[in-house]
Amino acid sequence: MNSPNNPTGRVYPRSEIEALGKLIDSRAPQATLVADEPYRKLVFDGVSVPSILEATVRSVVASSFSKDLGIAGERIGFLAVHPEHPDRAALLAAATFSMRTLGFVNAPALQQRLVARLTGARVDVEQYRVRRDLALAGLARAGYECVKPEGGMFVFPASPTRDYVEFARRLARTQRILVVPGSGFGAPGFFRVSLAVPASTIERSFAGFEKARTA
Ligand SMILES: Cc1ncc(COP(=O)(O)O)c(C=O)c1O
């Protein structure tokens, strides 16, 4: 599971996570619940993100420092396997083995030492909160419907036309606004707007969003 969610910004409440943990323990004892949570520290309005580690011992947290330290592209993150996971040793051995043999980008040792000292740090979340509110208000004025993200760095409005992929293309072609169609996230009918741009860029986009909708 992915909470705060990319792209909806939804934070799953404790009750849902507890129910999921119970389901795994009672019905799927071979399963492991994996939380993909690089946006954990990017939450707004005092929201906190309940941990899956409290819901079931069959849990693994996979995270990245890309977002909370603003170092996307460095590919530095971590895996945390529940200390009482019955397959903990095998899981950790498999993860280590995979990193060695698959040959994907691996964080240099110096970076790993540095980043371990930064676990208490994070980027200025207030900037994202300001951009979220700016985007929500501007998109609403331009006639778009959108749920309010509780975290993350995206907003996910509904496409005003049935063919949401064509609508994303229209935004790019006619207004030079790049969005990602919701199909990439299993959510057809929507598109993702990134807040990882200056507030002035978000502000400038509203006229284009309105023109594309009314074209
Ligand atoms: C939910 C989620 N998980 C993982 C990642 C991967 O992060 P990285 O490869 O930058 O560490 C991303 C990046 O967009 C993401 O949105």
* Hetero ligands: pyridoxal-5'-phosphate
Tally of structural domains: 2
Mind telling me which CATH architecture of the largest domain this is? 3-Layer(aba) Sandwich
Largest sheet: 3 strands, mixed
Tally of alpha and pi helices? 6
What global shape is seen? Answer: globular
User: Can you identify the CATH class of the largest domain?
Assistant: Alpha Beta
Looking across the biggest beta sheet, what order are the strands in? 1-2-3
Helix/strand order: HEEEHHHEHEEH
In CATH terms, what is the fold-level topology of the largest domain? Aspartate Aminotransferase, domain 2
Fraction of residues in H or I helices: 25-40%
**Uncertain regions spanning at least 5 consecutive residues:** none
Distance between the termini: 38 Å
> Pairing-aware structural class of the strands and helices?
alpha+beta
Number of distinct beta strands = 6
Strand content: 5-15%
Q: What would CATH call the homologous superfamily of the largest domain?
A: Type I PLP-dependent aspartate aminotransferase-like (Major domain)
> What is the residue-averaged pLDDT?
95
**Cα radius of gyration in angstroms:** 20 Å
